[in-house]
Amino acid sequence: MSRATVPPRLWTSLTGGHRVSPRRTAERGRAGYTLWQRTRASFSGVVLPPRAVPAAVPVPRQAPVRRREAGHGTPGWFSLPPLPTVAALTASGSDTVVLETTAPDGRTTFLLRHPAGDTSEYGLELVVHGGVDADRPLLVTVSYTRQDGRERILLVPLMPARFGPAASYVRLSGFGPGAAWAAVGPAPLRTDTDWTRDTVVDSVRAALNETTRDAWRRVSELVGDDVREAIGSALG
């Protein structure tokens, strides 16, 4: 056996010699090599030269996209899902539910209807299951963007029904595919309302059935003179 045929570390152990440890900077030079390369170098006694290790490149985070929706992000408001495209709607001889969703409270259902024989107007039926006080109506406020780009605020009162859950049905004038809309409520009616006359008159005239108009009559008994007068003039 000759020294030329034996790896340096093994020769050192056989002859009792002292192994000179490479400098720590050289050991750190093993960074950037594969496991097989480091193992082979260890058996052969080769000191791997330092290798530059590419630094991790941070991935830029995309800023969240802010989208303007009806309701303006006011606390308590929640967005409603968009209406399907016109192509997804089919003609029908009776009212057709084209969209159904539930409010965060889990007990209020929004049913968007396409009235029979009318291809331009949509109706919204609100149904509240339980928790409606007979002495004080609940109120849901709906905000949406009309086809002409203007925002419309619609007040929808609900009273307990004689049979079944409380429900109201209103016309969504100017509503259509792509419109952003949101709602807040239901919440017990406040007597110190600050509604504008135009909003009150527009909301009362949007009622599509007598149940909703009866709810407005009950509201008129609980609010101030100005709002009461506006409700009365809209009801006729």
What do these coordinates show?
The protein is an alpha+beta fold. It is built from 6 helices and 8 strands, in the order H-H-H-E-E-E-E-E-E-E-E-H-H-H. It has helices spanning 8-15, 24-27, 35-44, 197-205, 210-220, 225-235; strands at 78-79, 96-102, 108-114, 122-128, 138-145, 151-158, 166-172, 181-188. It has a 4-stranded antiparallel beta sheet. Strands 2-3-4-7 form a 4-stranded antiparallel beta sheet. Helix 4 (197-205) packs parallel to helix 6 (225-235) and helix 5 runs antiparallel to helix 6 (225-235). The longest helix is centred in the C-terminal third of the chain and has 11 residues, at 210-220. The N and C termini lie far apart (118 Å).
**Poorly predicted sequence stretches spanning 5 or more consecutive residues:** 9-29, 53-72
N- to C-terminal separation? 118 Å
Helix share, percent:
10-25%
What is the multimeric organization of the chains shown? single chain
Determine Rg (CA atoms, Å): 37 Å
Strand content range = 15-25%
Q: Please provide the ordered H/E string of secondary-structure elements.
A: HHHEEEEEEEEHHH
Major sheet summary line: 4 strands, antiparallel
Q: Average pLDDT across residues? A: 75
How many helical stretches? 6
The main sheet orders its strands as 1-8-5-6
Shape: elongated
Q: Which structural class do the helices and strands define?
A: alpha+beta
How many strand elements? 8
